[in-house]
Amino acid sequence: MLPINIIVASTKEMGIGFKGNLPWRLKSELAFFSKMTKTTKDPTKRNAVIVGRKTWESIPEKNRPLKDRINIVLSTQKLDLVPKSDDLFQCSSFNEAVEAVNHPPLQSVIESVWIIGGAVLYKKVIEEGLCDKIYWTEIMVDFECDTFMPKWSSDDFVECEDASVPNDVQEENGIKYKYKVFKKIATSC
Questions:
Q1: Catalytic pick from 22, 26, 66, 106?
Q2: Active-site residue, from 26, 29, 106, 121
Q3: Per-residue pLDDT tens listing for the chain (189 residues)
Q4: Residue 7: which of 164, 184, 179 has the closest Cα?
């Protein structure tokens, strides 16, 4: 089974969105997201991102599908995924997406899977114990939010270090934030 990671930015109160958008604009944090979800150890493979329909629709059209990644959009509705691409798939459930990435033809080209939102998908993956690591950007400023990331338990996840993740506090436009990595207790960092 391919490793499944969550990548998310939230406030300390776990706020991740407001009116269908990110409450903050941090170019460096978006660059980190891009780097983490694109980078593979094996240059012949790529990563897959699994995203819920609402989060997919919140991504500016000019940036869809996310480049250099296999994009899997979850929706029970028939979507007109434009542009048509060999890197863009629709699945009706998370379980269907996991099946797809762990069997041919995708299995042979994917190194790891990244869950990129939204809240319902994050909740399912955490509650069902399907996540190996959580890459969390802690936004150290309060923002008004109406969408929240579920909290994870210290009984299930422990903070760890990852050489590809900066340890120090970052700042952009007066907004401080810090990258943190949590691994499932049974997973190595």
A1: 22
A2: 29
A3: 899 999 999 999 999 999 999 999 999 999 999 999 999 999 999 999 999 999 999 999 999 999 999 999 999 888 777 666 789 999 999 999 999 999 999 999 999 999 999 999 999 999 999 999 999 999 999 999 999 999 999 999 999 999 999 999 999 999 999 999 999 997 777
A4: 179
Q: Please give the DSSP secondary-structure letter assigned to residue 55.
A: H
SS3 166: coil
Return all residues near 1 (Cβ < 8 A) that are at least 6 apart. Answer: 98, 102
Phi, psi (5° rounding) for residue 90?
-120, 135
Looking up tokens 């940036």 gives 63
Specify whether 29 is catalytic: yes
> What DSSP designation does 65 have?
S
Q: Does domain 4-184 have CATH number 3.40.430.10?
A: yes
Residue 22 annotated in active site: yes
Q: Tell me whether strands 175-184 and 170-172 are parallel, antiparallel or unpaired.
A: antiparallel
